[in-house]
Design a protein that fits this description.
homodimer, alpha/beta, Rossmann fold, Arc Repressor Mutant, subunit A, 2 domains, 8 helices, DNA-binding
Chain lengths: ~180, ~180
DNA sequence: CTAGAAGCGTCCGTTTTCGGACACTGCATG
DNA sequence: CATGCAGTGTCCGAAAACGGACGCTTCTAG
């Protein structure tokens, strides 16, 4: 249950503050001042906190969005939380559309940062777990969910899953449900 | 793409402020000052913003957590964002464990609130879409994902899915992939 | 009480799927 | 060049899944 975070920002003070806020018995934190070779740095992490503006004075967030896209394409399950000082809603929306897990404005509240990163890490774990599932396990879960959603009504559950009722019975038995 | 929000707080000023922040061409907002009959009020919403403390002076957040549990059990797909003034990390963690989608501290930043609620609404939509999927469609997606993850290597993809290779071929053909 | 509707669990002849095996291709290594 | 490893696509007898139909139990309404 211990999470591994990576923080990327060109300002050492920001890195120090964020690392302090996130460090704890349940979290390992590493930092980087540049997004160079970020795929390798991010390997094995549960979440990445990424600054949007690296070039001094840059405010468009383009740099961060580029790194976001690059990292997401290398490892789609990994949650990436973006942070910026110059946060407009439109920029945030664009970031979320590109796959960012969350969006934090500097200066942040430590509570909020910790919550966001914890949620992000949990999302990563969940996606990784799902990605490794066997077809049988996926089917079992879907069936269990449908059965729950229909309140135990076999006919409705079968229809919901696109099965005939006998087929649902067979699968229930096969999965031991 | 227009979202419907419900805001529940006993303070009318808070309701007004939150409604103003969230209103827009893409969002319909309704408010309530009490969580009574919340299941009915929440029907058809994409996300609910819920205060944690209703009794005057109450700070434990117990009230909000109770309503959260009640609402979650009635409609598990619905995203619920909790808000409180007296936010400790432990309370936030507890809330998230009980199924809250996010956790906002009062006073909030309008940007952050809008982002949080938009993300929550998207999460609701995604879960609802998934809940209605047929077994065939679920299988098709899982296969497509595995094939992508293995870089097109049939043997690896089959192993990942817990299938024999011929079985994977049959399913590919059946799904037209 | 009775008719109808809705749901349940099972049967069985037909259809589909299963997976081990086989032959083939590409490709790196000695 | 030869060897071996990894991957691909297909075949076929055995095995499993398919789904329409049947008889049964509730439950609701007239």
């Amino acid at each position: 249950m211990a999470f591994a975070f990576l923080i990327v920002d060109d300002d050492p003070d920001v890195l120090k503050a964020a690392a302090l806020a996130l460090s704890g018995p349940l979290a390992r934190v590493d930092v980087a001042t540049s997004p160079d070779g970020i795929e390798a740095l991010a390997a094995g992490r549960d979440a990445v906190l990424l600054d949007m503006n690296f070039a001094l004075g840059a405010r468009s967030g383009e740099a961060g969005l580029g790194v976001l896209a690059q990292l997401k394409s290398a490892e789609p399950e990994l949650a990436i939380v973006l942070m910026t000082t110059f946060g407009g809603v439109s920029l945030a929306v664009e970031a979320l559309k590109k796959g960012a897990e969350d969006f934090i404005l500097k200066p942040w509240r430590n509570d909020a940062l910790e919550i966001a990163m914890t949620k992000a890490a949990q999302a990563t774990r969940a996606r990784r777990a799902e990605a490794g599932l066997t077809l049988d396990e996926i089917e079992r879960r879907a069936i269990a969910r449908a059965l729950l959603a229909s309140g135990g009504n076999m006919t409705k559950a079968a229809a919901m899953l696109g099965l005939t009722r006998p087929a649902l019975y067979r699968r229930l038995e096969r999965h031991g449900l």
